[in-house]
Amino acid sequence: MQRNATWATAVSSVGGLGFVPVAPGTAASAIAVLAYALIGPLQHFAVLAPVTLVVFVLGGLSVGAVLRRDGGPKDPSHVVCDEVVGQWIALLSLSYAGRWELMLLAFPLFRLFDVWKPPPVSFFDRRPGPWNVMMDDVAAGIYANLASHLLLFLVLG
What we know:
- This protein is mainly α.
- It has one domain (21-156).
- 71% of the residues lie in helices and 0% in strands.
- The chain is built from seven helices and no strands.
- α2 (24-38) runs antiparallel to α5 (100-116) and α4 packs across α5.
């Protein structure tokens, strides 16, 4: 059990990043953008989409183990794998992949929607369970993706 709990904590906290004392979700989102910027293949939709799906599944499984072990809040602050998934969804693009403008918009827009929690983000946020922990950030990521693409289209064409 301890080995599984250690694995689940490592995955759900993105290697311990979730334990930073100030704004761990923002830190995880920033690291997700940095990884996207520095790891070229992640900028391709055909790579980022399946990688995001794998992180979503591993994240949901690890969050489930953490919630079962801790019996704590429905979305502990050290669980930040969901922010990585949501941020990468915000960065998914066929039109503006790898562009600094996309990264510049997607980061604050994802954080905005993740904190603001418009429906359906709030729908998932109010419900317990590991998949709801993951899905509220998926929904925020979709909003950020759509808003980023709309703004980029209006500005850049």
